[in-house]
Amino acid sequence: MALQFEPTEYADRLSRLTASMAKQKLDAVLLFAQESMYWLTGYDTFGYCFFQTLVVKADGSMTLLTRSADLRQAKHTSTIENIVVWVDRMNADPSVDLRNLLSEMDLLGARIGIEYDTHGMTGRVARLLDHQLTSFCEIVDASYLISELRLVKSPAEIACVERAAALADDALDAALPLIKAGGDEAAILAAMQGAILAGGGDYPANEFIIGSGADALLCRYKAGRRTLSENDQLTLEWAGTAAHYHAAMMRTIIIGEPSPRHRELYSACHEAIKAIEQVLRPGYTFGDVFDTHARIMDERGLARHRLNACGYSLGARFSPSWMEHQMFHTGNTQQIVPDMSLFVHMIIMDSERETAMTLGHTYLTTATAPRPLSRHSLELIIR
């Protein structure tokens, strides 16, 4: 089997899951999030774009219901021994196959948790599932059951995150010589992704963000490439990826002479991220991180230019997003504890002056101060 971790690591994860299930009095859970299946068993596929689910019972037994295309994938990449295939056919309703499987597993009338909040669960699937199971068992929304278990990383996971962070640094190193007047965004992207793949990394769970000129103010990838001018701004957000574990970085790089506004916004970003380092530690919450960011931005008169979140937890994720559920936003009571991998980003977009500034990288929390995982400093990059 092509497992990324030792069997003992997966056994420990299963033990933690069944303990959490016992606390919530769940007889079984239906996992639809690909990252949950990957974390628990090593199962590695993009087949979650179709109907598939991993049934985990309270006794730790597991059965995967999937399509024929993923049968060998599951056998080769996971610890799953029991695999059931639903057959592709006209008007197929695999939720019926699932109900029959659950009946065979003696789960009629059971209390079953379901991962609803995931990209592996479409609205149509949810409706089919609810139709089949409402009278079959007691349904519980267990969307965050494994998500919460994944927040704290094991030593083996931390090694993956550290490798991902090194690859993210390699990507920036590859890009910097190309970031200059006349530079091509396409060449920059190719160099960054190429450095990660050449270093043994993976494709990221979402596209790298690249934008220059007016597009530097965008926070999402878009199609189309541009050539850099003599005085320009380039916003990049990317992640190194190792065994699907991500370590993200973000920078707005100035080509030519930075404007006074660029320097003003950079100063705010730098002040905020250094202040966050003082609360990115045990004893504080995710909400405290956001409040620190908002306070500094608002004191500088930048309230309308900042975002309503300033980062999130990172880990092993699959398309279409490398973000985990837990984010830095107002009111989030999630406690910060050691061994979390957390991406902190400062994003200021002044549309009135068409001026962008971003700054961010991934940290590993400890018992005291957080440890930045990038070898690059937070200095403003000018080319």
UniProtKB/TrEMBL annotation:
Outline the extent of the Creatinase N-terminal domain. Answer: 13-152
Q: What is the top-level taxon of the source organism? A: Bacteria
Domain Peptidase M24, residue spans: 160-366
Q: Which SUPFAM superfamilies match?
A: Creatinase/aminopeptidase, Creatinase/prolidase N-terminal domain
PANTHER family hit by this protein: AMINOPEPTIDASE, XAA-PRO AMINOPEPTIDASE P-RELATED
Annotated protein name in UniProt: Xaa-Pro peptidase family protein
